[in-house]
Amino acid sequence: MTSDAYSAAQASAANLALLSGQPAHDAAVVLGSGWAAAADALGTPTAEFSLLELGGFAQPTVPGHSAMARSLLIGQTRVVIFLGRTHLYEGHPVDAVVHGMRTAVAAGCRVIVLTNAAGGIKAGLSVGQPVLISDHLNLTGRSPLTGPEPPPGYGSRFTDLSELYSPRLRALARQADPSLDEGVYAALPGPHYETPAEIRMLRAAGADLVGMSTALEAIAARHLGAEVLAISLVTNLAAGLDHTGLNHAEVVEAGRNAAARLGGLLGQILPRVLPASEAAASEAAASEAASSDPAQPGHPPTGLSGAASDGHELRAG
Ligand code: 8IG
User: How far apart are CA 142 and CA 211, in angstroms?
Assistant: First the structure.
């Protein structure tokens, strides 16, 4: 990546502030295949706009991925929801795949919630089941941090991924739904599905789930100091594990059938994702903004600086 990718994200974050009317956002959610039906369960957005209006986003090529974004207040958490994502398999560069992450962090987001549809590998997983991602195998052969060191103020490209998927946020999700299972997500470049031999290899390598997204976004978000929660919806059993072929229609149908559960889950998690100190600050900022001249927002459009509680440098502008 080049420093251009970071300045493009700052420009998109400034557009997000303008289009949403919100000087900053606290958390971002990416709704993957099968999760679109959960969006409406999260409430009425205060603004809705096309990702293309933000600039820097690729035109999506996948059915079921509408290129819209919404801004909502969920509890005290100001959330931006991306209804769809950019995949490597569409032929887009890695910078395009992670542009939403860099935009979200530049807009103030400290928490990123990534959702996807995935094939189930681990025995016992069934279609329609949400599974927390505990870790990943990045088998895309790519990294969002390839290239020279990021510009001054951003973290090193040699980013620590030992707690990529936040234990704190996974615990929070389990409080919302104690029955949630968790597993290791193998990210492949796609767009073809695996052969049965590849699935046997993945299982031997420790994969519980397999899909074509999420890992590169998680790396980019973590590099910027955000905390990442990722949830897969199992929409098929991986190749060779059942007798039906794999197709996109079953993904959409599994999502539709699970929509209420998925929406309920996200709706319970999102009001509680901010660490306690930040939740209090966000509340104070909201009441300050409400009581002040609307032309004078309480904090700057891409207001994010300083260090995260875990020592990771946070940087937006
Ligand atoms: I939905 O079985 C979904 N996405 N690679 N393999 C891969 N991606 C997927 C699968 C799957 N199911």
Answer: 15
Per residue in 142-152, pLDDT (tens digit) is 999 999 999 99
188 touches ligand 1 (CB under 6 Å): yes
CB 29 within 8 A of CB 276: no
Residue 311 sits at φ, ψ, to 5 deg, of 90, -10
Active site residue 194: no
Q: How far apart are CA 272 and CA 274, in angstroms?
A: 6
**Which H or E run contains 282?**
helix 276-291
Nearest-CA residue for ligand 1 atom 9 is: 211
Decide whether any atom of ligand 1 lies within 6 Å of the 88 Cβ. no
* Residue labelled with tokens 């502008």: 317
Residue pLDDT, tens place only, 41-52: 899 999 999 998
Cβ proximity of 132 and 182 under 8 Å? yes
Q: How many CA atoms lie within 13 A of 241 on its CB side?
A: 25
62 lines ligand 1 (CB under 6 A): no
Q: What is the mean pLDDT of residues 127-136?
A: 95
Atom 3 in ligand 1: residue holding the nearest Cα: 118
Q: Which domains does the chain have, with CATH numbers?
A: 3-274 (3.40.50.1580)
